[in-house]
Amino acid sequence: MQLYYAPGNANLAPHILLEELGIPHTLTLVDRDNAMHRGEAYRKLNPNGLIPVLVDGDLVLYETAAICLHLADTHPDAQLAPPLATAARAHCYKWLMHLTNTVQAEMITYFYPERMVDDASAAAQVKAHAEARLARMFDLIDAELAAGGPYLLGAQFSIVDPYLFMLSRWSRMMARPARERVALGRYLAMMALRPAVQRAFAAEGIAAPFC
User: Fold this and answer.
1) Which domain holds residue 26?
2) pLDDT tens profile 43-75
3) What is the mean pLDDT of residues 171-180?
4) Are residues 62 and 93 in the same domain?
5) Domain ends where: 28, 53, 79?
């Protein structure tokens, strides 16, 4: 398998899963500083020009959540997702969709507020509102972990955990990052100790602290 990545970008969740699975894979750096993601060659893989892309044989797949599901479905013995047609599987879908459609979408607003406004002077206000909404989202996830855990689906590590870890890491520069919540902070510290997480960070050239 081949994973197109940029350090710490949305490739981090599937990269961790590749490490968890122990699958032989190669990493191909997408040089954002030189706009490689906007070039013709990369857009043949992902016409949106976004990272990541996974190449698995003849399959070229983009969208982080789709890549995570693909890895779980093609390696069922690893039990990265609960069995099909179970309540646990439904909750896995719920959290994965929430993380990608709600939390990650709000992260994009936080990091790129200028995309939401015509007047550049309003960008700071958009960013502040996004950060406030993200704080409430992390509060809800913190409550979920406090009531259950140790992982987001309960006792079993699953594809939603690297995804939550990745998004939580993106909050590290906020006034109140995800790690400052009790249950979520404990969860992130636990996740950071997983050998697969540490291997992924080492491969991407990212030094501790990881979140």
Assistant:
1) 2-79
2) 999 999 999 999 999 999 999 999 999 999 999
3) 97
4) no
5) 79
Structure tokens at 159: 């594809």
Distance CA 137, CA 45 (A): 32
Q: What's the CA gap between 36 and 103, in Å, rounded?
A: 26
Rounded average pLDDT over 107-134: 96
Whether residues 95 and 55 fall in one domain? no
What's the 3-state SS for the chain? CEEEECCCCCCHHHHHHHHHHCCCCEEEECCHHHCHHHCHHHHHHCCCCCCCEEEECCEEEECHHHHHHHHHHHCHHHCCCCCCCCHHHHHHHHHHHHHHHHHHHHHHHHHCHHHHCCCHHHHHHHHHHHHHHHHHHHHHHHHHHHHCCCECCECCCCCHHHHHHHHHHHCCCCCCCHHHCHHHHHHHHHHHCCHHHHHHHHHHCCCCCCC
Tell whether 180 and 124 lie within a shared domain: yes
Provide the whole-model pTM.
Answer: 0.97
Residue 202, domain member (yes or no): no
